[in-house]
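Subject: Sanity check before I submit

Could someone independently write out the structure tokens for this chain? I want to compare against mine line by line before I put it in a report. The sequence has 364 residues.
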Amino acid sequence: MASRLGKSAAALLASVFAFTFGAGRSHAQSISVPLTSDRWVLSQRNFKIQEPQPPEHNGEVVNFLGRQCFRMARGLAYARGIEFQNGTIDVDMAADANSRFLGVAFRVQSDDDYEVIFFRPRSSGSTQAIQYTPGLRGANAWQIYTGPGYTAAAEIPRNQWIHVRIVVSGLVAELFLNHAAEPSLVIPDLKLGHRKGSIGFWGHLGGGYFADLRFTPDSTAYTSEVKPNPLPGALTDWELSPMFDVAEKDPSVYPDVRSLQWEKVEAENPGIVVINRYRRSPNIDAPEREDRIRGLVPGAKFVFARTTIHSNRAQIRKMHLGYSDEVVVYLNGIPIYTGNNSLSFRQPNFLGCWISKATPPTFL
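---
Independent answer below. Compare away.
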């Protein structure tokens, strides 16, 4: 519902760009998953960022550090014929000198739709070393799902095998490294819900190697309820327009809202509308900052999002706004804020995560 303060109403609309969060256990026996390529589905459809060099032996069984293993350099690979919902996933993983991103996917329903925990060897030791994100219409929304419960610190060595264990229990997942007693990361609210899917590997810009994949099902009945917990004052009722190409429509021009078709959506905890749930990201490579300053980026897409704020009197209120990647905010048809929070725009190592907030004044 709309946030109600009284009688009169102000319409808020933003145009948003995209370049691109029981009983005791019942255990079965551990099941080994063959790594031969004929047992796996390999997709690179949603991995459009150019690699420095073409990946070699992608999706093949190779020898690395003395072990037969699955090479996942680019894309998503998932095992055929597996329906995993709850339980434990065990696998050995290794990064080489060029690895940048490698991970384990679970509850995979397609190359558009999966959960993944991935690792950044170049960020080893920092809070960006481990990252959870759902796959939403082929996009990994890691800039949205960031911070406690989504990212964590760990040592991710190169040219060394490490053991990865993921324990999935309903809407909760725990990650353990190298047989540690305590988890490195606890995800309290898996974003794709309590459903079944396959198990797989995920890699990008070098990827990594995986060996001895096993899983142990857990037949315990876990809750699938997600309790709404928005931040105080969060605007949770929104509508989205269709997606537009920047070459065909100018996002800085307020649209004829009556001519657009609107889809009703709701914000998820703690008050975020994740557009990737409803619209497919173009997944284009982030251009250089100087190119973005000069104008709109070819291939970029945007949507309009609108909500209504009710106020019982004329007043000025401060609005807290988090976003990624770019935004223009209109109040009653008048632009009140524009900003660019995209990857590497503000400084070379800027991640563009949504926790960077703007506070434009809002005249009600």
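---
OP: Matches mine. For the report I'm noting this point. Residues 31-217 form a domain with the Jelly Rolls fold (CATH 2.60.120.560).
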